[in-house]
Design goal:
The complex is a heterotrimer. By secondary structure, chain A is α/β, with parallel strands linked by helices. Chain A contains 7 helices and 10 strands. In chain A, helix 3 packs across helix 4. In chain B, 81% of the residues lie in helices and 0% in strands. Chain B has 11 helices and no strands. The longest helix of chain B has 39 residues. Chain C is mostly helical. Chain C has 13 helices and 2 strands, in the order H-H-E-E-H-H-H-H-H-H-H-H-H-H-H. A two-stranded antiparallel sheet of chain C has the order 1-2. The chains are: A alpha/beta, B mainly alpha, C mainly alpha. The interface between A and C is medium-sized, with 29 and 24 residues.
Chain lengths: 267, 252, 289
């Protein structure tokens, strides 16, 4: 099953142990629909792993299970060896629909994760400011979400996820609600950002190009009931200039190869 | 089983039975003459609906409601359409429609009496006044909701104005028009009852007055619940039609 | 039994769709076939003026025709309005009419909102309360107003009860819907960032619902106006209701219409001020842009 996975180049001593481990996770709804059917997966530390699959294959469900928002009907998720029973401080989520409070400014929205943790106002706003700068939203602190474009809203969502200093950043189709050009920009910016922030990223998308462009590792899910159908490691270095990636032969090959695999699931 | 999943299995409307039981207890042991036990009210309700005076009142009320609603539809929908497609109409009338939809129109009923006589015509006018505004507003909203790409599509295929109106705009606005109709029925029912109790000489208004004057509490409550039930059934009937067309309300 | 779906459009939404704000000139931009109409785009006040001239002019002409002696022209009604204001008639009337309205709405604003929030937060409260409120919202409760005299006599309490009776269902239902319709993704977000249930309620659900709760109160006040007028017409001939009934009985139709215009205007102004306040307080995101 792991035909393409090559041993990952060791950078730190932790590299070997997966930070997130999914074991036998299944999700069956009362209606009889089986969304996930026995998923076993390891997420390597410090890497960006993408869950890729056709629409409605349950990739978001799997992400929400890892986030601790949903309980699986079978199986378990472990983070740093501890079983997940609910949301935890080491995991932060970036939402597909941004999940920004419409009545709060960008500053308060970005600081909201810390506000919930009881961080004093001055401190959390200082932290929020730092990440607002980092994601390129400086000057928009006092705007409300409805005054921002989709791309800027998601920058705020990303900044909020970064403020809480979680090791694991989960992103649920974060760029699907923005237009193509903005999506490319956000992808490039995400890669640059990850060179600064050491995070393990779990990224859900239905875009093959996005997955190959961003990922260290791509998990292909089949149609419902969803299983892991293949795992790909494009082997493209992400520490170089982001605009070189799409010219890389490995990028083009992997896109083709994944399309060949996923095609069978479409009608 | 948690309380939550237990409650999910019990139809929500069933809690009305619990309220009826509470009423029964208050009626039996509460010692309030004004609240007779629910069971005797129910028995009385069955009796009442068979009396001639009830049937007469129902006929008078249905007539006033029917004519008033018909007028509201005949005036309200075209007015709403006009305001939806023609900007000057919208700009000239919007303020007034918005005033009348939330104003206490009850205050106008006494003014109708010297104009239209203390009788059925005033009740009809009350129903009309209560019902028409929400129809205007919802029809207008419905016409606006029809996507301009649908209209463009019809024009590109050579549709005439009449065709565009009857084949695209009107069916497109139907979900909102039906919602407006349901809300108009809710308001119309309130209008007919308010008109009748202010006049107190007609239909259910006369019966309510009669029962209260003679302190016939079982009869009074029985009639209240029968009228409530009639109103609910009527509104739900429109709701059934509304839901049949609801499927494309979100995708136009 | 009918299943009650919280998401279905009801009276509340319709009236919320039709904000009194149109009067105040703050209506949201509306998309039409030929583009977008901004509320203040091309000289909106000229249309506003034309609108008033059109309708009030039609009234004036119909009154002078005359259609009926019981339908005085607008100008005579305005003269009567000025006379009555000068004579202090309105001050007296509203000193009697408004307290029951204010008390009733305050009671509903506290207890009704609390009940609605409880129903939104607890499945048990929802189960027991929701069907009753939906039935009360649909039913012509006005039928019960004459009965109130038997409970409270011909008193201000009866009027307050009438206000409560008519305004409670919409206030409760709107508060309930405000809580229940909270964006599920915001709740997920709150859980994800380790918000407690209390934080979920105070930082997500209540702010989210506040606009709708306020809108419910506005609709409740609108219903309360109906309640207090009905009570004054039906059970206790005092206040503005008496001003209407009395002038009708002595055939001073100009004064009768003046009283009616005063209450309609008061309600309209109150509601549109509340609408503006609502836009300002609960939609800072809209107000700024």
């Amino acid at each position: 099953m792991n035909a393409m996975t090559r041993p990952l180049p060791a950078k730190s001593p932790d590299e070997g142990t997966p930070i997130v481990r999914v074991e036998g996770v299944a999700m069956r709804y009362a209606s009889g629909v089986t969304a996930l059917d026995g998923i076993d997966l390891d997420f390597p530390r410090g890497k960006l792993t993408t869950l890729l699959g056709p629409s409605g294959c349950g990739k978001t469900t799997l992400l929400k299970i890892i986030a601790g928002l949903i309980r699986p009907t079978a199986g378990s998720v472990q983070v740093e060896g501890r079983p997940v029973t609910g949301p935890g401080p080491e995991r932060a989520l970036v939402f597909q629909d941004f999940a920004l409070l419409p009545w709060a400014t960008v500053l308060r929205n970005v600081a909201f994760g810390l506000e919930l943790r009881g961080t004093p106002k001055a401190e959390r706003e200082a932290i929020a400011e730092k990440y607002i700068r980092e994601v390129g939203l400086s000057g928009f602190e006092n705007q409300y979400p409805n005054q921002l474009s989709g791309g800027m809203r998601q920058r705020a969502g990303l900044a909020r996820a970064l403020t809480v200093n979680s090791d694991i950043l989960m992103m649920d189709e974060p760029f699907s609600a923005v237009d193509e050009q903005m999506r490319r920009k956000l992808q490039e910016d995400l890669l640059s950002l990850l060179q600064v922030e050491q995070k393990t990223v779990i990224f859900v998308t239905h875009s093959i190009e996005e997955a190959v462009y961003l990922s260290d590792r791509i998990v292909l899910l089949s149609r419902r009931p969803s299983r892991v159908s293949a795992i790909r490691d494009p082997g493209i270095p992400h520490d170089g200039p982001p605009d070189q990636i799409r010219r890389d032969q490995r990028y083009l090959d992997t896109v083709d190869e994944i399309w060949d695999t996923l095609k069978q699931y479409l009608q | 089983m948690t309380p939550r999943s237990l409650l999910d299995r019990v139809p929500s409307g069933l809690s009305l039975v619990v309220w009826a039981a509470v009423w029964e207890l208050i009626g039996r042991f509460g010692g309030v003459d004004l609240i007779p036990p629910m069971s005797s009210i129910a028995v009385k309700a069955v009796e009442i609906v068979q009396t001639d005076s009830f049937l007469e009142a129902l006929a008078v009320t249905a007539q006033a409601f029917g004519i008033g609603m018909a007028l509201a539809i005949v005036v309200g929908i075209p007015l709403g359409v006009a305001m939806g497609v023609w900007r000057p109409a919208e700009k000239l009338l919007n303020v007034w429609v918005n005033i009348f939809i939330s104003a206490p129109l009850t205050a106008l009923v006494p003014a109708l009496m010297p104009l239209l006589g203390i009788g059925q015509t005033t009740v009809i006018a009350t129903v009309f006044l209560f019902a028409v505004w929400v129809l205007v507003i919802d029809t207008q909203a419905g016409i606006r909701h029809v996507g301009s790409s649908l209209v463009d599509m019809a024009r590109l295929f050579g549709g005439t104005r009449t065709q565009i109106f009857f084949k695209v705009l009107l069916p497109g606005a139907l979900p909102e028009i039906l919602t407006g109709l349901r809300l108009a029925v809710v308001r119309g029912v309130k209008g007919v009852v308010i008109g009748q109790i202010i006049i107190a000489l007609l239909g259910f208004g006369e019966l309510f007055e009669l029962y209260l004057q003679n302190f016939l509490m079982e009869e009074f409550w029985a009639l209240v619940f029968v009228v409530f039930a009639l109103a609910f059934v009527l509104v739900e009937a429109v709701g059934v039609v509304e839901r049949r067309f609801d499927f494309y309300a979100g995708s136009r | 039994m009918t299943q009650i779906e919280p998401s279905r459009r009801t009276e509340a939404d319709a009236a919320a769709l039709a904000p009194a704000a149109a009067v105040a000139g703050t209506a949201p931009p509306i998309a039409t076939e030929d583009g977008v109409i901004g509320a203040r785009s091309d000289a909106g006040w000229i249309w506003q003026l034309a609108s008033f001239v059109l309708v009030l002019g039609a009234w004036e002409i119909a009154g002078r025709w005359p259609i009926s002696l019981a339908f005085p022209p607008f100008s005579r009604v305005m003269t009567a309005l000025v006379e009555m204001t000068a004579a202090g008639d309105f001050t007296h009337a509203y000193a009697i009419t408004l307290p029951p309205l204010v008390v009733g709405v305050t009671v509903v604003g506290v207890l009704g909102v609390a009940l609605g929030i409880a129903m939104g937060l607890s499945r048990g409260f929802e189960w027991i309360g929701m069907p009753l409120m939906v039935v009360l919202q649909t039913a012509p409760i006005a039928a019960l107003i004459p009965l109130l005299t038997y409970f409270y006599g011909v008193s201000a309490t009866s009027k307050t009860a009438a206000v409560i009776l008519l305004s409670a269902p919409i206030v409760v239902l709107n508060s309930y819907r405000g809580i229940r319709n909270t964006n599920a993704s915001l709740i997920d977000m709150c859980r994800c960032f380790l918000g407690t249930r209390l934080q979920q309620v105070t930082k997500i659900m209540l702010p989210h619902a506040s606009g709708m709760i306020f809108a419910g109160l506005r609709l409740g006040i609108s219903a309360g106006f109906i309640g207090v007028v009905l009570a004054e017409l039906l059970i206790s001939p005092t206040g503005i209701g008496d001003l209407i009934s009395y002038n009708r009985s002595i055939a001073r139709y100009d004064k009768m219409f003046a009283a009616i215009v005063s209450i309609l205007a008061l309600a309209t102004i109150t509601l549109s001020v509340l609408q503006r306040l609502e836009n300002r307080l609960f939609r800072p995101d809209h107000a700024v842009s």
